[in-house]
Specification:
With 321 residues, the protein is an alpha/beta fold. It has twelve helices and nine strands. The protein folds into two domains: 69 residues; 235 residues, Rossmann fold (3-Layer(aba) Sandwich), CATH 3.40.50.150. The radius of gyration is 24 Å and the shape is elongated. Bound molecules: S-adenosylmethionine. The site of S-adenosylmethionine has 19 residues, from α5.
Length: 321
């Protein structure tokens, strides 16, 4: 969207106004639009408002929706940066982090717990990419998984400060402030690389997966959970709104080619779809000069709208990553 040199602050204010005003118009129709009829009964403003309130109700509501959409697009041109967003909300985030884990995406997070339990070997080393306030560490501790060490990295110091309080007094729990997109990840090797609700913020998630692959021990796994693109209309609206928070739903063409992708399960929830991805780095014996291609997807039994995809065709390997 062209910004015509209008400043960020002005775009944020007008974007927020368009969203709120548009949604109220869509919800309340003429009753709401009439509230804007104030001032003298004559003059261009009064004439414009009279013309507007004479339009059919459905047209006003449709116009409201279009205006809200324009507002979202405008907000997307003036996003809040990740450090600003999470720096300001770290305390709140810590208090509400269980809301989407336990309510909005409970089945996805049960599967995440299951995957961490399955793929973390006894005494194994864990790397948590964009660990935030340490929600995954809490799950590992609560489930009493027998980990050897846990390393959490994140860009936002205020989020790490919250996370540090959860690993206090244990010298096998470490945190490091870093940008996943700049430089190398902490040297491993790690048995389990985990990342949740963070790939949405990365401009090149595949590059971060490549870096993580390098520090993954042969035989190790990556378990990733993040929001993915969907055809579902509500998911598209949330995707638009996410642009304001320097995020986006990760499209399939980005995650399809992750190295070692072994399993994907899609879960539908309040903010659109999330995917739970399991990547496996073969040992030299299991590698055997072959690699797995082509995703086969099927609806999972029991849970509405969830789809599971697994690699089930074997091809010849052309290169390592
Ligand atoms: C929604 S929070 C998720 C935190 C945690 N993984 C969880 O599941 O609760 C997103 C986190 O990603 C971090 N993040 C975003 N971009 C990052 C980057 N380029 N490098 C490191 N961390 C990043 C943010 O600082 C924030 O803590």
């Amino acid at each position: 969207m062209k910004t015509f040199g209008v400043g960020q602050r002005a775009r944020r204010l007008s974007g927020a106004f368009c969203v709120v005003d548009g949604l109220l118009t869509a919800a309340l129709g003429r009753r709401y639009v009439r509230l804007w009829r104030f001032g003298p009964d004559t003059g261009p403003y009064a004439r414009a408002m009279n013309w507007l309130t004479d339009r059919p109700g459905w047209l006003l509501r449709a116009g409201g929706l279009a205006q809200a959409g324009f507002g979202l697009a405008l907000l997307g041109t003036a996003p809040v940066s990740v450090p600003t967003l999470y720096g300001a909300s770290a305390g709140t985030y810590r208090r509400i982090e269980t809301v989407w884990r336990d309510w909005f995406y409970a089945d996805g997070h049960r599967a995440l717990d299951q995957a961490m339990t399955t793929y973390l070997p006894p005494n194994g080393d864990v790397l948590d990419l964009a660990c935030g306030t340490g929600a995954n560490l809490v799950r590992i501790l609560d489930m009493r998984l027998p980990f050897g060490s846990y390393t959490g990295v994140d860009l936002t110091e205020q989020m790490l400060a919250q996370a540090r309080t959860k690993g206090m007094g244990r010298d096998n729990i470490r945190f490091r402030q870093m940008d996943l997109q700049v430089g190398a990840l902490p040297e491993g090797p790690y048995d389990l690389v985990v990342s949740t609700w963070a790939f949405e913020h990365l401009s090149d998630p595949a590059d971060v997966v490549k870096k993580a692959w390098r520090v993954l021990r042969p035989g190790g796994h990556m378990v990733l959970l993040f929001e993915i693109s969907t055809d579902f209309w509500w998911g598209k609206v949330v995707d638009r709104a996410l642009r304001f928070f320097s995020g986006r739903h990760v499209p399939e063409e980005v995650w399809r080619d992750f190295s070692g992708l072994a399993d994907v399960t899609r879960y539908r929830g309040a903010f659109g779809d999330i995917g739970l991805f399991v990547l496996h780095k073969p040992t030299e014996e299991t590698w055997g000069g072959r690699y797995i291609t082509a995703l086969e997807c099927q609806p999972t039994s029991g849970v509405g709208g969830n789809i599971r995809c697994a690699r089930d065709k074997i091809g010849n390997i052309s290169n390592g990553i």
